[in-house]
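stuck on this one:
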Amino acid sequence: MNVNDKELIEFSNLVNECCAVMDHDYVAEWLQKKHPDLNMERPIDRFRSGGSKSVYQLLYFIEKDEADL
């Protein structure tokens, strides 16, 4: 498996996790939107820069109604 395949799988997993937490139609917009719980970074930028753990943590707190979309 090359790097691009791995990145695609990781991104697909992120999108699937987002879909479990929010309306499917909102996922693309949410990934592109600056978020206060990510220091006003966009979730997709944080994910790409190696901060996937913080994005997944945010999704967890959103699911538990402890953070806003």
